[in-house]
Design a protein that fits this description.
By secondary structure, the protein is α/β, with parallel strands linked by helices. It has 2 domains: 1-40, no CATH class; 58-168, Glutaredoxin (3-Layer(aba) Sandwich), CATH 3.40.30. It is built from 5 helices and 8 strands. The strands form 2 sheets. Strands 6-5-4-7-8 form a 5-stranded mixed beta sheet, with helices on both faces. Strands 2-1-3 form a 3-stranded antiparallel beta sheet, with no helix packed on it. Helix 2 packs parallel to helix 5. The protein is elongated, with a radius of gyration of 22 Å. The two termini are 36 Å apart. The relative contact order is 0.17.
Length: 173
């Protein structure tokens, strides 16, 4: 970080703040400096979102501005206890013009279920590798709230009752 005090520019990092640091220091700028290149690999290597016909939409979906909800569904159960709560969440999102994206490894079955429920026009269904879904969402299903490409919240199906007020408080788009 670069601060100015008494007409002089001083540079220091967060671990080495001056002992006399007070409001006489005025922030000028900050920059990032690579001390050592890391060797970490992203935990989700194969996170690719594709349409039913195989078009990769990952970057478009993640780069879209505003709020969006992702529901990860690894495989579809006959009837899941979270369906009723998700229906409430999906209805609230629709009223606020917040996109709902269902991400699944069980594409054909989910498309059929969504059509049966009459919400096909209100959600987007995308395919993803089951291993990537399992990495992102340990519970089946799991709901994510994003703004732009940033994850703001995550709820397993057991916590959808906590997601309802969170989605309700979101502004319309």
């Amino acid at each position: 970080m670069v601060y100015e005090k008494g007409g002089k520019k001083l540079e220091f990092d967060a671990a080495h703040f001056p002992k006399d640091f007070d409001d006489s220091y005025h922030f000028v700028s900050r920059y990032d400096k690579v001390v050592r290149e890391g060797n970490a690999v992203a935990a989700i290597k194969d996170f690719v979102l594709t349409t039913g016909d195989g078009a990769d939409t990952t970057q478009d979906v993640l780069a879209a501005k505003g709020y969006k909800l992702f529901q990860f569904v690894r495989e579809l159960d006959e009837a899941h206890p979270a369906e009723q709560k998700f229906s409430v969440i999906q209805t609230m999102a629709k009223s606020k013009h917040i996109p709902v994206v269902l991400i699944t490894g069980d594409y054909d079955n989910l498309v059929a279920r969504v059509q049966q429920q009459g919400i096909a026009a209100d959600v987007t269904i995308l395919k993803c590798d089951a291993t990537a879904i399992k990495t992102a969402a340990r519970a089946n299903p799991t709901l994510y709230l994003l703004k732009g490409g940033t994850i703001l919240a995550k709820w397993s199906y057991a916590d959808y009752d906590k997601a309802i007020p969170a989605v309700n408080e979101l502004p319309g788009q």
